[in-house]
Each structure stands twice: as C-alpha cells, then as structure tokens.
C-alpha cells in the first residue's frame, strides 16, 4: 500500500525514527494520533516524559523498561494499556519497533469504559481490564506485522470504527469539559463547573471518571504542559520566556515542575530528551500542538477523505 493518502509527520535522527499518522475526522474526537517508533539495533534511548493522556502501545525491543513517577524501571509488557498521567514517566529502550495510539478522554470513555481514575498513573498488560478483545487482537497484529504504515492505519481505523456504536449519553458534557480544560482562560474550577451546569461534587466525580483526575489537577497539568511545550519547541529560550500566563512567578513554576517531573527545570534541561524531541517535532507538524495532552480533538475533526 502507498502512504501518500496518509497525513504523516516524520522525525528521523540518530537511529530513532518516529512517524505520526493523523486519525481521520470521524475518529479525531477519540484518538489523538497513531505513532510508529523504530530504533535501530543497539540504539539506546532514555527519557523523562511529561504527563499525557491515555494510550495503547505494542512492540518488541531488546530492552523496554519504564516507571511512572518515582521508583525503579520495570519491564513493559508487549501490549500495554496506559492510563492518563499527571507526573513524569521515565523510559529506557534499546532497539525495537512500536506502535502507539493516543486516546482522548472521550476515546477512553467510548473504547475502554472503566473509570479513568482506576488507571491514572498506571500501565498494565492488555487483558487485565475490561477493554474489548478486538483491541487486544489489533495490538497483536500491529506487533507482528506493523511495518506497512498504510495497512496499519487501515487496521486501526477499522477496529475503532467497529467499536463506535451509539454515542454515550455523557459525551456532550465530556466534550464541553475537555474544551474547558484546554481553554487558556480557564483558571477556576468553580467557574468551569457552573458553565458546564454541574455542582462542585458532581463535577469532581465526572472529571475523575472520564479524565482520571480532579478538575484542579487537570488545570494545573495543562498550565504546566503549555509552559513545557513552549520550552521544548525552542529549548534555546530561557524558562522564564516559556511560562504560562497563569503562573504567578518563576518560583511557582519551579514548584510545579519539581512536583510533576521529580526534578528542577535546570536538571531537566541538562538531560538528553530524544523521545520528547521527536514527539514534539511530529506532534507540532501534524496537529499544531507540542504534546499529546494539548491536543484539541475538535480542531482536526473536519470533513476530509480518510482511510
């Protein structure tokens, strides 16, 4: 199959190749991207990844270890369901090929179904949750025969379209909350809950179920990611130049950074970031954002011809 009809962004440097495929419009509210990562034999990468939304991943490597938050690195299963995170994920990979599929909060609700809070800051082997068997089968096929980008994208599209079914009753509210979380002007949980039409306690339960975290945590995460995203787009700038407008001062940002990444901004800047560099490059080219958790599903859900 030719890949000319795919909307693909590519990064290729130092034995690391990352290709990001944009989902078709009907799946864009639920899936942020499909990404193919390839590491040449013997090439080792280590990185400290910022918070992100949930995703599905599958692949094989000489070494593939990770940990969310603090603790020792542990082997990553061949087919993985990873929940949303609000803290650093450290990874170390040597050689290998992988597929990943980013899930929006609406995608988690539609295709996974369990409360997102149960998988917050966790990853597990597929089969340990109630996720549909067809997702596991799709990941197995991608792992065995995922070299053809167009064929893989077709498989992913076909699998998720078969699972769409009827729109969940909560989806309109979910999308409204997602828009609120992403909005630059959103700073008040009380104002957001009032705008959505939910009382404070119901709003908090709703966010934990569909987004994995309380609304205050979601707003803090977006503020942090907007700042880190600006810096990663241009690492030559000083941190002060990348700060989100809602930080009181640089000390406020440093406290958030340490709580999220287990290190200071200067310590982070001194480390190599091959995976983040590749991800920021292809995400920005493809969707106009620097990181997965900044992806706005409605921005790309417009009529186009998809696979």
How does this structure look, described?
By secondary structure, this protein is an alpha+beta fold. The chain has 11 helices and 9 strands. It has one domain (1-307). The protein has helices spanning 105-112, 133-144, 149-163, 171-182, 189-196, 200-211, 215-233, 250-261, 265-269, 274-287, 297-300, and strands spanning 8-13, 16-21, 31-49, 55-60, 63-68, 74-75, 79-82, 89-103, 123-125. Strands 1, 2, 3, 4, 5, 6, 7, 8 and 9 form a 9-stranded antiparallel sheet that branches. Strand 5 and strand 6 form a beta hairpin.
Label this structure with key terms.
39% helix, 9 strands, alpha+beta
Q: Given the helix and strand composition, which structural class is it?
A: alpha+beta
The major beta sheet can be summarized as: 9 strands, antiparallel
Radius of gyration: 18 Å
Number of distinct helices: 11
Instruction: Count the beta strands.
Output: 9
Please bin the fraction of helical residues: 25-40%
Order of helices and strands: EEEEEEEEHEHHHHHHHHHH
Distance between the termini: 12 Å
Tell the overall outline.
globular
Q: In total, how many domains does the architecture comprise?
A: 1
Amount of beta strand: 15-25%
Low-pLDDT segments: 301-307
Oligomer state of the chains in this structure: single chain
